[in-house]
Amino acid sequence: MNQPDASRTPDQALDRLLAETHLRVRQERYDEAAAKLAEARQLAPEHPAVLEMDGDLAFARGRFRQAEQLYHQAFQADPGNAKLEEKYATALLKVHQPDYMTHVGPADDSWWYFPVVRTPWVSGLISAILPGLGQWYNGDLLKGAIVFMVWLFGAFSHLYPIVAPLIKAAKDTGTAFAMGDIVQGLFTGRAILGTIILAAVWGYALVDALIIAQRSKEYA
After folding, report:
1. What percent of the chain has pLDDT over 70?
2. Fewer C-beta within 10 Å: the chain N or C terminus?
3. DSSP reduced 3-state for 12
4. Conformation bin of residue 27: beta by default, left when phi > 0, alpha when psi is -120 to 50
């Protein structure tokens, strides 16, 4: 089997890692971006898209000379990329003529970041329906998975002791139990603490999804 050529279009795994890195750079979560970029670099260290993203991270951190070198390497590997050439030129100006440009960033240069804008009300709505979905929608796949698993485990371990006796009683008596019985069980005795914890996880997922989605609009 032929090995994939690093100069070609990135495979699905590499493309996903670069997209996640890009989103975290936009969110100014540089340490997380560097971690994702390290994974991408392991897959294709000399790929121009990886070098370009490395330059984007360096530029966002104010390391303009490092960004210039990375953009230069990327442009040598992909000389027909006009956007990359423009980034390289911008980094050159920042290094050699710092007074020429007072600010370069997403608010002034539409080419600098790809338009990955999330709609806050959509993010909030789906997060309210199921904790973790809003994070997935925003591109925070790992965070979304963690939030969902925590909420799912908490919901099961909390609801099972309440619902199981009701089901057993319904089978023994032949009568169905009402939803009000479950609600009453959630707010009685020790169960109320679990209810508060579940509500806190749900609230965190909702607020976090709204904040990140709103931030993506501001930096778009």
Report:
1. 80
2. N
3. helix
4. alpha
The pLDDT of residue 30 is above 50: yes
Torsion of CA 45, 57, 71, 102, to 10 degrees: 180
Q: What pLDDT is recorded for position 201?
A: 92
Which residue bears the tokens 């965070």? 143
CB neighbour burial string for 17-53, b if at least 16 within 10 angstroms, e if fewer: bbbbbbbbbbbeeeebbbebbeebbebbeebbbbbbb
What pTM did the predictor assign?
0.43
CB 67 within 8 A of CB 105: no
* Cβ neighbours around 105 below 10 Å, total: 11
Can you say whether residue 174 is alpha, beta or left, with left for phi > 0 and alpha for psi between -120 and 50 degrees? left
